[in-house]
Amino acid sequence: MWAAVKHPAFAGQTLLVVQPLDENGRDSGASFVAVDHAQAGAGDRVLVLTEGGGARQVLGKGDKTPIRSVIVGVVDTMDIEAAAPAAAVEERGS
φ, ψ for residue 72 (rounded to 5)? Predict the structure, then answer.
């Protein structure tokens, strides 16, 4: 992503558009912009910290910095186990 004008807190930072995915790899929710702290590239699956205070701590920025989302890791592989089916609760008479 390229911007002609941006907040000074973003100076020297790479900004990437992130698309959230569900456990099956399908789009899940709206895309958003995140600061890249993990040297991710186009098409990489990434781990994103989307809590502003934590994001600013990762970047070493102060509390007044308008940064909300930071890419903190690139995902190499994913192993997803199927969740156990929910057990039905039987009602017992007294």
Answer: -110, -5
CA nearest neighbour of 45 among 81, 24, 76, 15: 76
CA–CA–CA angle 19, 24, 25 (5° rounding): 30
How far is residue 15's CA from residue 18's CA, in Å, rounded to a whole number? 9
Radius of gyration of the chain, Cα coordinates, nearest whole angstrom: 19
pLDDT tens column, 27-63: 999 999 999 999 999 899 999 998 878 877 887 777 7
CA pseudo-torsion sign 21, 39, 2, 35 = positive
Residue 94, pLDDT above cutoff 60:
no
The whole-model pTM stands at 0.74
